[in-house]
Write a structure and sequence with these properties.
This protein has 232 residues and is α+β, with helices and mostly antiparallel strands. It is built from six helices and seven strands; from the N terminus they run H-H-H-E-H-E-E-H-E-E-H-E-E. The radius of gyration is 17 Å and the shape is globular. It starts with 7 loop residues before the first helix and ends with a strand.
Length: 232
Amino acid sequence: MRTLGLSPRRSGEVLAIVSHDLRTPLSTIALGTTLLEDASQPAADRTHVIEIIKRAADRMERLIKDLQEVGRLDSGRTLRVDARSVDLAALLCEACEALHVQAGAKGQQVSCDLPDFPIAVCADPDRICQVLGNLIGNAIKFTPRGGRVTLAARREGREVQVSVTDQGPGIPASDLASVFEPYWQAPGTARLGAGIGLKIAKGLVEAHGGRIWAQSEVGVGTTFAFTLPVAD
């Protein structure tokens, strides 16, 4: 594979980032095709699964293109976003659906707590789905079998705050400042990923002019939250 003129260390980081972000849609496709093998499913359910698989494939294509952009994060530049007015509820529902199969495999529930009124945000829908895929995917990973992952949103002035809450082991307060550093892993969780998904999420949120942070309580769970600007 060409390394685009990068150093061996940087090439390894690029490969790690790409493989990490491809894992979520690839899992969705793999689990979705397994469901399609069940010929007893109603036609409407099979059509719905096919739509989810197609969206995951589109996401993979976008992530592959990101291979040329990840170097921007370490050079102090922002990732490219195509922001426009989009319906936040539609984005959140799409993100939940994309991870529904993965959560179902662990007997988990993914719930959405959304405002009763529509909210338009200024965002790149593919990029925000990428952020949500990272956050929800992590929440599913750390939440035990049978647990719940909660996705919520609320408006605060000219911003909207989106949060993803898990029922995992939690992160010690002394480690919260490190969660967005590349390759950082909480003690005892190194087998659960490369530790670069949150770095990508942070870069994408900041490219939208937003903020991202984490709150956690050991033994209770963790919440990752980020903001997006409300569309004019």
